Amino acid sequence: MTSVKCFGSWLKEAGRGHLTALFGWTTFFIYTVLLVMRLSLDTSYTFFGIGNTVLLWLSMGLGVLFSFLEFFYLLQQKKQDFYYSLPVKKGMIFWSRYTHGVIHFFLPFLLMISVCGIWQAMVDPEFAPFVGSYTAKSILAFGFAFLIFYHIGILCVSVCGNFICAVSLCVSIIAYSSLFIENVIKVFAKHYFVTYYKIELLEKLNNILSPFGLAKRLAGLGIYEKRIALQYPLPAPYIIAAVVWAAVLFVLFSAAQKKRKPEYVGTPFMFRNVQRLTEILLSVLAGAWFAAFAAELTKTDSLLFGFVEALCGAAAAFFVQYLIELAVKKQGVSLLRRKGQFAAVSIAAACIGPAMMFGARFYDGYFPKEAEAVSVVIEGVGMSRDEYEMLDGQENTVTEKYLYRFRMTGEGKKMTLQWAKDLAVAVNGRDAEEQKSVTKATVCYETEGGSRHYRTYPVTEESLRKFSSVYETKEYKTLAYEGVSLEEVGQDKFSWKDGVFSQTMKIEAEEKEELLKRYKEDVFRFQMEQLTKACPCGILEISSPADGEETELIVYPFFEKTCDFLESRGIDPEKQIKDYPVESVEIKKTSAVLPNVSGGSYVHFYEEPEEVDQWKEKLIPKAFDVQQILYPTDHTQNAEAVVTDEETASYVRVKCILK
Amino acid sequence: MICVKELVKNFDDVCAVNNITLNIPEGEMLGLLGTNGAGKTTLLRMIAGVLEADDGSIVVDGANITSGDVSEEIFYLPDDPYFFPNASMEEMILFYKKYYPRMDAEAAAYMAGKLNLETKRPLRTFSKGMKRQAFLILALCAGTKYLLCDEVFDGLDPIVTEVMKNLFRQEMKERKFTVVVASHKLRELEDICHSIAILHKGGVLTSKDMRHQAGNICKYQCVFSEQTDLEEVKKAVDLIRFHADGYFVTLIVRMQPETMARLNSFSPVFMKEVPMTLEEIFIAEMEGKEYDIRKVLR
């Protein structure tokens, strides 16, 4: 060994291909220019680090690309013979290439982050205090995203003998856990678990076991608010998971590069064990996926169908195992020679569905003895029509928003547990099915230690009535009617909206406090049952000059104290849309049509006074449509009323729904 | 000196090199002969350190090849050598100079000039023959003690082949180094190699062994009279090969004490013992060992 054969010398040799450097530096140079330009125009919604989707894709993409560019020689016998015949250790070649890839990502990346950080600190005073922490966190997040994908690529190239196999393995590693959790476990869970909403453990596993999911969490994907992005705390579990991912992959490819035999270059796999493991994992996934698909199609959880699904899964696993064997088998080797493996993957794929089926009774029968907190949301209670239509019994942003909002730890929690226990008992006895449910309730039990258990229960009319025990607690009402949390509103601006017009209330500070006090009393006094008899008569809007926050206080006709106060200040809370001079009513009805067929929407205009009088009796301003279950309205038709504003002699169009 | 001892290499179920023992003395040019798939390339790749043996050892100048201590003394020239994209001969010389400190860049440039090879031109634009010449120049000028060449003359026209052989001869004259040239054609090797080793069923037989073993085999050229029954002649001796052209007969026989007397009993008009060619020795030795020697003679 001579002195020139030092690591540095090989590092230069690793750069001979130039492609890695070209991609790294060009990509980050162009992106730096673009980011600086965008930051010059907008610093509120432009993130150069955490929260930046493009940067995450670049980090992950360059990770995979660099791994293949740097280590492609491992898949080329000619090039490998050339390198390995030189008086240089194989490890030296490998590690110099590894370092070369890392350098050509991190150097331009750090440069980009630094330039953008300095630039934003110069143009955005709000950002200046975060320049250090935000930049450091961004480096950590995107650095790990790159390393994880870089290591995945290197591992694939190290254990595979040809390009197609390496790419396929890379895709499999990246997508496997997500596919398994989303398309197998969750599908079976939805199919067999009556009370399934979501399983927190699965969500966490998906975020940790999926490289893409983990990278997304690290990089704060989905953050659109600058304040949140700047203060984003890199979650410790994800940092640990990223370190484990990078370290485990590092150990694996280090061992693989030492043990791989150059003579197997060109074959699909360099190691038999890796081939077997890959075959098993892919076959089981494919089989279980197919079984889950069959379960989704049949939509029945009977034992017979469960057996058929298991058979489908076993057959699919067997078939996929056969296909993989066919693709990777060596000449002269007979197919189906690994009978045990074929049997094992088929049984494993077949067992997942039945295991979930038998686990359903434990899942559905769950009810916590104690809970630190409970969140509850009944679909349609306190929701606008738009929100209600977004619900489909599955995990969704509306339910999540309400679960977050209705988290109770006191009296509300106690009453919810009592109420939910009846639902859980009913589900296990299948009472709800017999009695026909009117809606669904999603409950989140937060047990000691912070783990959350979500369950969805069907709600019958009787159990909906019984929900009043929860609804009428002070804790629930405080969360449902955010106005009751307001304090010191003397300086705030009060407006009254009756669904047609809005008017600013000219009242003194004491009067404002008095009005709010009365509103609170009304809220805490009314019973849930009253919501079934009337829709809101108006909205009291309170705007705070301190923070610009606007709070809407829904007022019902049975809020006597509030209504009396409003009346005493010249506002008629009983005034409805029908009391205004309605010029015309437009009724729009939409029905489903076949694809590529025009039509389906019918609009009728009613302008005759008799017709208008008839229709306006049924109109409710859309803003007041807040109780889909307790005060149902007709949503098969949308309405729009044209109301004359007598003060300005103009027309106002008011979106309505029908009673 | 390269000492290959009981070397074994399997590719799954295929035994590429089976228990080969071979000594390659210093300063010798050894031709490694064998049909396609005989294990020549595998043996060279193992000596070069590219592949690891399943069993046995390769010791070069007293050091095991796996230690990497002698890899600086070995230059491996595969049948289709790799070069960097767009690299010229000059760039490859500079590259090799880093790893082979005795690389003689001037000599390489001189030799390239003699063969009309442009050192600044990208190697990818060279013809197959030109590439072979260029890499042979690089290999010869690397200054290594051992040079391993795989199918270096394969597919070249006779003129280029001769030019390359001359390059070898010239370099062998100037310095003492050891060359192993693998080929599947005996004729490419016999006029340049000091000795030939033939890979047979994964094992190896060298020409020296064969000449030694062929010590009791003689070749006679005879002219018999018209009355002589040539069938009787064939029966009279332990015949290996027989060729008759009219009355002119060439015999290769395994000598026994009474062989000469038996041949003389047919009163040949003319009879003379002539030296055997390497090809004839191979034929004589290998035909009895289930090896179709004609495959390497074409």
TrEMBL record, chain A:
Coiled coil ranges: 502-529
UniProt keyword list: Coiled coil, Membrane, Transmembrane, Transmembrane helix
Membrane-spanning intervals of the chain: 21-41, 53-75, 102-122, 134-152, 159-181, 236-256, 277-297, 303-328, 340-363
Highest taxon of the lineage: Bacteria
Signal peptide, first to last residue: none
DUF6449 domain span: 445-540
Cited InterPro entries: DUF6449
Pfam families named in the record: DUF6449
Protein name according to UniProt: DUF6449 domain-containing protein
Species this chain originates from: [Ruminococcus] torques ATCC 27756
Source organism phylogeny: Bacteria, Bacillati, Bacillota, Clostridia, Lachnospirales
UniProtKB/TrEMBL annotation, chain B:
InterPro entries: AAA+_ATPase (IPR003593), ABC_transporter-like_ATP-bd (IPR003439), ABC_Transporter_VariousFunc (IPR051782), P-loop_NTPase (IPR027417)
GO molecular function per UniProt: ATP binding; ATP hydrolysis activity
Keyword NADP: no
Keywords, alphabetical: ATP-binding, Nucleotide-binding, Transport
Any matching Pfam family: ABC_tran
Keyword Nucleotide-binding: yes
Residue ranges occupied by any ABC transporter domain in the UniProt entry: 2-226
Protein's recorded name: ABC transporter, ATP-binding protein
Organism, scientific name: [Ruminococcus] torques ATCC 27756
Organism phylogeny: Bacteria, Bacillati, Bacillota, Clostridia, Lachnospirales
